[in-house]
Specification:
By secondary structure, the chain is mainly alpha-helical. The protein is built from nine helices and four strands.
């Protein structure tokens, strides 16, 4: 008999909307901080840095080329380190591996708050490195792929879901669209808070990002019950199907081996 109850999954808060809220606020604040206070360099938007790097390269302004090249390389290194941490600490019991990444971010960004503006190049490199770790580590919210430190992918996915909802009336598509637009709004809000924070606190404004990340870190100690989500359900159903197939194949192989062993023993018995 089929149950009318929704299937509930016991999940980790690292992919919840609540965690994504604070990560997105932090991402917007970081980008505003490096652009408005650290020499108009983007911490997250490496596309913008590549455009500015190319402009200065063709203009022969080599000092400014480094100004944008170093954060770009730091971002690439941050992705690499986050992925290495995933492989190294994914089975850790005391903390979720994503919490370790957030702890690293907090320490790095806290240190940046002490750097004078003469150290802008190093400050930008560290913030870009931290942003890359975050965007590589947190890639889903309630089963939907997203980015907490940039908006272009979220905007594309949000508009795609919105069109799907308007075309079909699918409530899941509407929910997906509002997830993405909510993330974009929070990123923009974080950028605004960062801009105001710079006026009030100067170089220490980045510590606001640390506070937001601390909230995310604490939230990840909580386990949440996740009601069925189309993306999650699809992945789980595929996994269940794969497990059943593997189980069936193992049983068949064991049966064949048992039969071969039985035939061999029977044959030897008759020969003797």
């Amino acid at each position: 008999m089929q149950s009318n109850l929704k299937r509930i999954h016991h999940g980790q808060m690292s992919e919840s909307f609540y965690t994504a809220m604070f990560l997105s606020l932090s991402g917007g604040l970081q980008d505003a901080y490096t652009y408005f206070f650290r020499g108009k360099v983007f911490a997250n938007a490496q596309t913008g840095n590549i455009v500015l790097l190319s402009d200065n390269l063709f203009a022969g302004q080599w000092d400014k080329v480094l100004h944008y090249l170093i954060p770009l390389l730091a971002f690439a290194l941050g992705v690499f380190v986050a992925e290495m941490m995933h492989g190294q600490f994914k089975t850790l019991q005391s903390l979720h591996w994503r919490q370790l990444v957030v702890l690293c971010e907090i320490v790095l960004l806290f240190a940046v708050g002490f750097f004078p503006q003469e150290w802008n190049m190093l400050a930008n490199a560290i913030v870009s490195f931290a942003c890359a770790m975050q965007v590589q580590t947190f890639r889903k919210v309630n089963g939907y792929g997203f980015a907490s430190t940039m908006c272009i992918g979220n905007l594309r996915s949000g508009m795609e879901a919105l069109c799907g909802w308007m075309r079909t009336g699918n409530a899941k598509a509407k929910d997906k669209a509002f997830h993405y637009f909510g993330i974009i709004f929070l990123f923009g809000l974080g950028a605004g808070l960062g801009s105001v924070g710079i006026q009030w606190f100067g170089r220490y404004a980045i510590w606001g990002s640390c506070l937001l990340l601390i909230v995310s870190f604490v939230l990840m100690f909580i386990k949440e019950d996740i009601e069925e989500n189309p993306a999650i359900e699809s992945e789980l159903n595929e996994l269940r199907h794969d497990v059943r197939e593997v189980d069936h194949l193992i049983k068949e192989e064991l049966h064949e081996e048992h039969q071969e062993l039985h035939d061999t023993l029977h044959h030897e018995k008759h020969e003797n």
